[in-house]
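User: What would this chain look like folded?
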Amino acid sequence: MDASKMTGGPIPTLIKLDLTKPAAGQKSLMNRWHNDIPFVASVKPGSIFKVDCLEWTGGQVKNNDNADDLRDIDLTSVHQLTGPIEVQGAEPGDMIEVIFHDVAFHPDAPWGFSGIFERENGGGLFAGPEDFKEYHAAKAIWDLTGVYATSRHIPGVRLAGVPHPGLVGTLPSAELLAKWNERECGLIEACKVNGVEKVPAVALPPNKQGAYVGQDLPEAVREKIYREGARTIPGREHGGNCDIKNLSRGSKAYLPVFQSGAGLAIGDLHSRRVTASLLSAAQSRWPAPSPWKSTSSRTASSCSATARCRSICPRPSTRCTATRSCSKASESTCTATDAR
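Assistant: Here's the prediction, encoded as structure tokens.
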């Protein structure tokens, strides 16, 4: 459905990013989950809007002919998410229904990338030292035209894409954040062999290195978020990094609310992917591949998406509709309607 027909005119862009600049310094981005991150924008029930989204690396991977950038990628700074956005009236115990009306490539960045991480820097759970002694980073650049992608690095191949966000979720409560950190740090401890952590890691604990929240914050609050904030790599109770290829045009996502206003954030867009991520690294430059590798490559790039969301809950609650686009940056459009 053309979301502009629902509004009778152009859909306003709620959050706009500069596609020519890296993530650091842009105010409407975050790469950690924490209950103290303030909203960067607010929508009323029934509104429809768009937001821009950067690709997952925040500009670390370039359109060139070597894989050094993928080999040396700073995985502590991914994913760069747009948000959080307040959905007015949403309260803990509610559930937000997000309907994606459209996802399209951003015209200013019509390319993506797929690749494989270096084993010691992002390699998949099955990339053991015995079986993958010659396991090195590799990259292919894909040019995006319409629904198709072609690559100068893999000639003779044309792939049809299904643009979709890899990551969409809501902010956790303080209690839920503490539960995540206890659970994941416990898993790391349980999987140590002779006191040494498994490589590749089974989980990623909070890490101040690479943490980013773009809003102006008191230094004490920023330090707390960076010290405690949950990494964006796994999916959790709030949604998060789900990497579902069918979460595309016309699909719906149901996200639970853990704090007033929900705090919707979105990013990690893919142009295409296989059914599951078994290893750990293929993506293209949409807003974003995740640190999991795919046996077949997924393509990350810039795109544009339109979605609608509503909230369903055991109490009188809110409905919202969202639309987004993804490219080097992507856009989202969101509509919220009151369900009470």
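Residues 278-298, 313-340 have pLDDT under 50 and may be disordered. If you want, I can go into more detail on any region.
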